[in-house]
Design a protein that fits this description.
Elements (H helix, E strand, L loop, with lengths): L1 E8 L3 H12 L4 E4 L6 H4 L30 H14 L4 E2 L4 E6 L5 E5 L3 E9 L6 E2 L12 E2 L12 E5 L3 H12 L3 E5 L14 H10 L3 E3 L3 E5 L3 E6 L2 E6 L2 E4 L3 E2 L2 H6 L26 E3 L14 H4 L1 H15 L1
Parallel strand pairs: 1-2, 1-6, 2-3, 6-17, 8-15, 9-10, 9-15, 10-11
Antiparallel strand pairs: 4-5, 5-6, 7-16, 12-13, 13-14
Helix pairs in contact: 1-8
């Protein structure tokens, strides 16, 4: 079993920030990431553009230079990769953490699909992008239904339904429409989501208004079928022709993983994890949370630009404990 002072679960921007802070303080650490560096960002759509400007995505005051004010996915991948390699951060990639358990001596046993570790401190910074919010309707498991979107070229000349009205759904609808897809949006509410990027929102609203993109508002999916989708619309049940579906209805953290470690979650349906706002330490001693996972189901509360501070808060607390 490999011994470490600190294990950081998740090699995204905030996990990397925690690693940088640990290295500066001389703390023996290891980042464990189940995919490539910044796995969640890697799985974003090819042409995705951030809402935040580049300086707000910077970690540890390392400059992030981008071609435009708001960088794109490929620029972010390059930025965070260079930080990891240039600072020689200790990180294991393509290794998935299976279990974390507290031992009698107050240390943690961390089991992965490749190895076993012991650590005195653990930081969980796993984001929220791995578990899609499913619609739980018949046919959702059909091959034509996807909860992740990558490249618009695949949907060219196809009848594409996009379920949702958030940033990811709007971006997909516009990109696929411009690559020649026949796009229909299925929106549960009365309008496009209020948090859609301000420079994109007028674009999709105008495409809908002119009829280039079809939209059904106040509508839900009743069933996915091989060649159609059955909708519940304000005018009643309606079937539309369909080749592919992008069900982009959001994602959620792995709450089961947190509960297995002993982290208490709120019982209001939001599943807010219990932690100190000053140190980010959970109800489990020496177990910390960092990044978007702190927001429970409200995944819009924490993101890179406002959770960068978690790294210093956590490592300051760990350093104080090590001194004593």
């Amino acid at each position: 079993m490999t011994q470490k002072e600190l294990i950081i679960i998740g090699g995204g921007p905030i996990g990397i920030a925690c690693g940088l802070e640990a290295k500066k303080r001389g703390i023996d650490f290891l980042i464990i990431e189940k995919g490539p560096i910044v796995n969640s960002l890697f799985n974003y759509p090819m042409n995705m553009q951030f809402f935040s400007s580049s300086e707000k995505l910077e970690i540890d005051n390392i400059p992030f230079i981008s071609k435009e004010a708001k960088p794109k996915r490929n620029e972010a991948l390059e930025y965070y990769r260079r930080i990891v390699t240039s600072n020689d951060l200790d990180i294991n990639l393509f290794e998935k953490v299976i279990n974390v358990s507290k031992q009698k001596d107050n240390s943690f046993a961390v089991a992965t699909d490749k190895d076993a570790y012991s650590a005195n401190f653990v930081i969980v910074s796993t984001g929220f992008y791995d578990l899609p919010n499913t619609l739980d309707v018949p046919g959702e498991d059909l091959p034509k239904v996807a909860h992740y979107y990558k490249d618009p070229h695949f949907y060219s000349m196809q009848k594409l339904a996009v379920v949702g009205a958030s940033n990811s759904a709007v971006d997909a609808a516009l990109e696929c429409y411009r690559k020649g897809a026949e796009v229909t949006m299925i929106v549960r509410g009365p309008e496009i989501g209020p948090r859609v990027k301000y420079w994109v929102k007028p674009d999709i609203e105008n495409r809908i208004k002119e009829g280039s993109v079809k939209a059904y508002f106040n509508t839900t999916v009743k069933e996915f079928k091989e060649k159609t989708i059955v909708l519940n619309t304000p005018e009643g049940e309606k079937a539309i022709d369909n080749d592919y579906v992008l069900a982009l209805t959001g994602y959620q953290p792995n709450f089961h993983f947190l509960e297995k470690m002993g982290v208490k979650l709120s019982e209001d349906g939001k599943f807010y994890p219990q932690y100190s706002e000053k140190t980010m330490e959970t109800n489990v001693e020496n177990l910390y949370l960092a990044g978007v996972i702190c927001g429970g189901m409200d995944t819009h509360l924490w993101f890179i630009e406002n959770s960068r501070i978690h790294a210093k808060m956590i490592l300051e607390n760990i350093a104080q404990k090590l001194v004593h």
